[in-house]
Amino acid sequence: MNIAIIGAAGFIGRSCVEYFISQGHEVTAADVIPVDELGDFYLLSSANTSFIELFQHRVFDFCINASGAASVPLSVQYPQRDFELNSYNVLKMLDAIRQYNPRCIFINFSSAAVYGNPTGLPICEDAALQPLSPYGHHKLIAEQICKEYRDFFGVTSHSLRVFSAYGPGLKKQFFWDLQNKIKEGGFVELFGTGKESRDFIFIEDILEAVDIVIKHSSQLPNAINIASGIEKTIEEATSIFIKCSGFKGDVRFGGQQREGDPINWRADISILKQFGFEPKYQLEVGLKKYIQWLIGEKG
């Protein structure tokens, strides 16, 4: 199959490029950041990204959009930029597909942030959508744009609601920040109480989930949870990370709550499980691989 991957220089995008090339697919990587080692690469214009040229001269079976901003705090600080990257660009991609490649199936990386604080766990795909941040709102708007182009223009799409992703290549978010604080030594203070919970999923399990979506697209719904289905408190996740890293200092939670952060998350992944999805990486196993990469990256 011919697959376009937009956002190929990022954490999930680069992993998707490497994975689908290894599976024997024809892959075109696209980003505003040039990455020569990714093979067939298309450089997008950061000044005026229309995506038309990408689809005008090439025919794709699937387009995976792994681009966009991924920071709740920055979405609060710069909401217009977050909207442009997470919502408006999705509209431009879909319109280019509508005009030039209407049979291309669009796979958009959404986020569990569309759920906000759920009324119950585990969170099913038909749970109430009540985002707590501009980031979550903009991801939800992107899902609504996908629905618009599906309902009115016949462009097939899937929105992948990824929960707490981690793994080699990720240079931000909780575990990356924790490693930075550990490197400083001594006393480490973290946000929150530690009782908040997340559903962590390792990058290789995410890739398996995307592969299943591509293979079974015609049988799958529009919105799909991508997660491990296992809830871990931040305190538990921190303890596992500390154990794997060998850190001997003190770790405490300051009790502060950050705007836009949900309290508890655990996904219902029964839809993907019907098609053979079984997450392979328990958190301790995944963190050992991530920490090995972090040590090589940070020294």
TrEMBL record:
InterPro entries with a match to the protein in the record: Epimerase_deHydtase, NAD(P)-bd_dom_sf
Domain of life where this protein originates: Bacteria
One Pfam assignment: Epimerase
Domain NAD-dependent epimerase/dehydratase: 3-227
Similarity comment text for this entry: Belongs to the NAD(P)-dependent epimerase/dehydratase family.
Annotated PANTHER family: DTDP-D-GLUCOSE 4,6-DEHYDRATASE-RELATED
Protein known as: UDP-glucose 4-epimerase
Species of the source: Segetibacter aerophilus
